[in-house]
Amino acid sequence: QVHIVESGGGLVQPGGSLRLSCSASGSIFSIEGFGWYRQAPGNQREFVAFITGRGNTKIADSLKGRFTISSDNAKNTTYLQMDNLKPEDTAVYYCNADGKVAADERFHRWGQGTQVTVSS
User: Fold this and answer.
1) Which residue, 6, 58, 83, 100, could crosslink 29 as a Cys pair with Cβ 3.0–4.6 Å?
2) For the residues of 74-101, what is the DSSP string, one character each?
3) pLDDT tens, 7-44?
4) Between the CA of residue 48 and those of 40, 106, 116, what are the distances in Å?
């Protein structure tokens, strides 16, 4: 079984920064990529960022320049650095992971989410 846990959310003032973490644990053979998504009240879940096991990254166009994704493969952990936060960044941030639990058995798991609130 693979478990995904996000952390690092909280309340921050506009212009502030937060770093979210997402760790995968369990019977992991390999991680092929981590993704971050967010969902604000009344909105659909939207893509934020993705990083492959090789370190290739993609950030949503609207967030480039403020959000950065990185990972520590040894820890099966990804980080989302969020700078110059705006009230419209308020959302629940979800992490997912794709990988393998065995050479021929893949997994795709989501975490429970972490709340980010940007408000003065």
Assistant:
1) 100
2) GGTEEEEEE-S--GGG-EEEEEEEEEEE
3) 999 999 999 999 999 999 999 999 999 999 999 999 99
4) 12, 23, 13
